[in-house]
Write the structure tokens for this entry.
Amino acid sequence: MPRIPGVATKDASPLIRVVYWFAKRQVGGVPEPFTVLARHRKLFMAAARHELAAGKASRKLPANVRELAVYRVAQQIGCSWCVDFGTMLQKHAGLDIDRLKHIDDYRTSPTYSRQERLAVAYADAMTTTPVSVTDEQVAELRAEFGDEGVVELTYQVALENQRARMYSALDVRDQGFSSGDACRLPEAELRTGRA
């Protein structure tokens, strides 16, 4: 159970219930970060609008490149929820999720393309503290993806750093989205009091 308990559907405001309903239709369950963020309605709504807008705006990079870089951030930070949800998103996008098991070998694994290697290396450099991005790295990314592509990649990697760090700090854990099984719904846990 997260360090801040989520808001159960029965206790949510009508607007948040609508967002829960929409999320459940889209991904098969209410994402636990939603329920936790619902403790602060204004930030919940700001985050929801931001996520939708960022998702719609991010169309310059190939989906496999963007999703792999975002996944790498989640994996590097150790956010089990983000890894779980990111795997599900890749699965639904028709991407090969079996190769995620070998992401630590991305530099040499033949399962990763040159573009993917560049993006994952950039995600690694952005996620370290302090950030270790180099001029050469950005120049190589610009040659491959153009300025808009580099800005999109940078934005998405930074956004995943925010998500993964927030969810890790609040101890939001995976829900089983990537397993293909019915996901464990946070509001059901809240009703029954199970962790």
